[in-house]
Amino acid sequence: MDNILQKIKKDGFRLTKIRKAMVGIFVGEKKPITSSEIQEGLSLVDIKADRTTVYRELLFLLERKIIKKIQFSDHKMYYEICSDHHHHLVCLKCNSVKEIVLEGHLERQEKDIYAKEKFKVLEHSLEFYGLCEKCI
Ligand SMILES: [Zn+2]
Ligand SMILES: [Zn+2]
Predict the structure, then answer these.
(1) Distance of alpha carbon 37 from its chain centroid, rounded?
(2) Which sequence spans correspond to the domains of the chain?
(3) Neighbours of ion ligand 1 (CB under 5 A)
(4) 120 alpha carbon – ligand 1 mean position (Å)
(5) How many angstroms separate the alpha carbon of residue 131 from the centre of ligand 2?
(6) Which sign does the torsion angle of CA 65, 23, 41, 135 carry?
(7) Å from CA of 14 to ligand 1 middle
(8) pLDDT of residue 125
(9) Which residue, among 56, 57, 68, 64, has the nearest Cα to 6 in the 3D structure?
(10) Percent of the chain with pLDDT over 90
């Protein structure tokens, strides 16, 4: 978390209270969260922020590539910290989200795509939908 804050500072941006708190929330979460969950998290540390302020800060963190957006099948927008490349296991019953790291087989697929389609894949997003351990 300190690395992220230092980088923001080094790039010449202000480390406001809300900015610090939001980075803290993202680092602490082990799953993607919605803007209203962020708002709740902020109120837990006594920061009152309206939706506009939260969105402005989200935009800032997105532009700096500190966080990224994900959309699941519920069509809500989720945000998570940019960390190691991973995918998500999304439970359709209880909506829990677990992160999973796949071994390199997708790189192989990306090479095949390039060979067959002459399309150079730069990134991908992959979510698995099903039932979690508790819901099977
Ligand atoms: Zn992947
Ligand atoms: Zn579940």
Answers:
(1) 13
(2) 1-83, 84-136
(3) 106
(4) 15
(5) 5
(6) positive
(7) 33
(8) 86
(9) 64
(10) 76
Of the listed ligands, the closest to the CA of 97 is 2
Architecture of domain 1-83: Orthogonal Bundle (1.10)
- The CATH number fitting domain 84-136, selected from 3.30.1490.190, 3.30.160.20, 3.40.50.2000, 3.40.50.2300: 3.30.1490.190
Inform me whether the pLDDT recorded for 30 exceeds 80: no
Instruction: Give every CB contact of residue 5 below 8 A, 6+ residues apart in sequence.
Output: 15, 20, 23
pTM of structure: 0.80
- What is the 59 CA–ligand 1 centroid distance (Å)? 24
Q: What is the pLDDT of residues 46-60, one digit of tens each?
A: 999 999 999 999 999
Instruction: Say how many CA atoms lie within 13 Å of 48 toward its Cβ.
Output: 0
Q: What is the pLDDT of residues 78-100, one digit of tens each?
A: 999 998 888 999 999 998 999 89
C-alpha dihedral over 38, 90, 29, 10, to 10 degrees? -80
Strands (E), 31-133: 67-71, 77-81, 87-91, 97-100, 127-130
